[in-house]
Design goal:
By secondary structure, this protein is an alpha/beta fold. The protein has 2 domains: 207 residues, Spore Coat Polysaccharide Biosynthesis Protein SpsA, Chain A (Alpha-Beta Complex); 84 residues, no CATH class. It contains 14 helices and 9 strands. Helix 7 runs parallel beside helix 9 and helix 11 runs antiparallel to helix 12. The radius of gyration is 20 Å and the shape is globular.
């Protein structure tokens, strides 16, 4: 079965060749690779052009101006030849059997519209810093109207059916455009599944997460709020209307929301610093999270510690790229 892999990219000269190489060396070879260069200026396009000359499966597209990830993904979707779409980030590395295993699952489960999988987390130097296994429970999440049980999946591990996503209008221009898409799929009645087997190395950039984390959390809360509105049979509101609604709340609700958000942000930053071995900021942010919301984060910290002990055999060394995959680029037309 054929599949389209879509990789949007912007200024990833450091990582893009490894990313593309990991796709081209998949054990399942029947695919097209659409790469959308979103107006890169650091040499990314030149690297991609050289690769495209050597392998006819690469379709290189380019935006003349930077339009963002959602626009790049939508362009790839609109031009894809095949119904199955494999998502991929421009700095991640596919494991060799990713396409083979996910295609098999989608063929055997025609009622599933999107499949997500686990991933090994790596830092900017290719060091494995953990393993992320998404957990969802759609039945319970829909019954409780709890987005956290439905949409917490890793976008670059996802494989979905093109017609379903296009029928919902594709990606919308949100910071967390993937979370918004999964929420719309769930409320429209489409089935989401998760496999516990890792399919790629997912790179984590702690600097980006920490500098934009408040914006990320606001967008996530806004997207979840609209998902609950849809489940209740109501229409969505805009981000501006959402901000106005929060501003008009009582002082008590504002203080409660601040405490919950501040603790969530602090805990998220703590996990990023923990992964990087930055112990002082890790302890500082963990202390903030535990003090503001002890009932939630004491339990979660204990659970995370237990998971760490269970998987402490996970390698923590730096992986040479040649050990992750062997670049094998087919000549065009071969």
């Amino acid at each position: 079965m054929s599949v389209t892999v879509i990789v949007p990219t912007h200024n990833r000269a450091k990582y893009i060749e490894a990313c593309i190489g990991s796709v081209l060396t998949q054990s399942h070879e029947d695919f097209e690779l659409i790469v959308v260069d979103d107006a890169s200026t650091d040499g990314t396009h030149e690297i991609l052009a050289a690769l495209a000359k050597k392998d006819a499966r690469i379709r290189l597209l380019r935006h003349p101006t930077n339009r963002g990830g959602p626009a790049a993904r939508n362009l790839g979707l609109s031009l894809a030849k095949y119904d199955l779409i494999a998502c991929m980030d421009d700095d991640d590395i596919m494991l060799p059997d990713r396409l083979k295993s996910q295609i098999r699952f989608m063929e055997e489960n025609p009622d599933v519209s999107v499949l997500s999988s686990a991933a090994y987390m790596i830092d900017v130097d290719n060091k494995i810093i953990g393993k992320s296994v998404p957990t969802i429970d759609m039945e319970r999440g829909l019954a409780r109207k709890d987005p956290g049980l439905i949409v917490n999946i890793i976008h670059p591990t996802a494989m979905y059916r093109r017609d379903v996503v296009l029928g919902l209008g594709g990606y919308r221009n949100y910071l967390l455009d993937d979370r918004d898409l999964w929420g719309r799929m769930a409320t429209a009645g489409f089935k989401i599944a998760v496999s516990p087997e890792p399919v790629l190395m997912h790179r984590r950039h702690s600097s980006i997460m920490t500098t934009r984390i408040n914006e990320i959390f606001e967008n996530g809360d806004f997207i979840d709020f609209n998902m609950i509105r849809r489940l209740n049979g109501n229409t969505e509101i805009s981000l501006e209307q959402y901000r106005e609604m929060l501003h008009s709340q009582s002082i008590w609700k504002k203080c409660r929301n601040w405490r919950l958000k501040r603790s969530a942000v602090a805990y998220r930053i703590a996990t990023l610093h923990y992964s990087s071995g930055n112990w002082l900021p890790f302890m500082k942010n963990l202390a903030v999270a535990l003090s503001l919301n002890p009932s939630k984060y004491v339990v979660r910290t204990i659970a995370k510690k237990g998971k760490y002990l269970l998987r402490k055999s996970t390698p923590k060394h730096i992986l040479p790229l040649e050990m992750i995959f062997v670049i094998r680029i087919k000549d065009a037309g071969s």
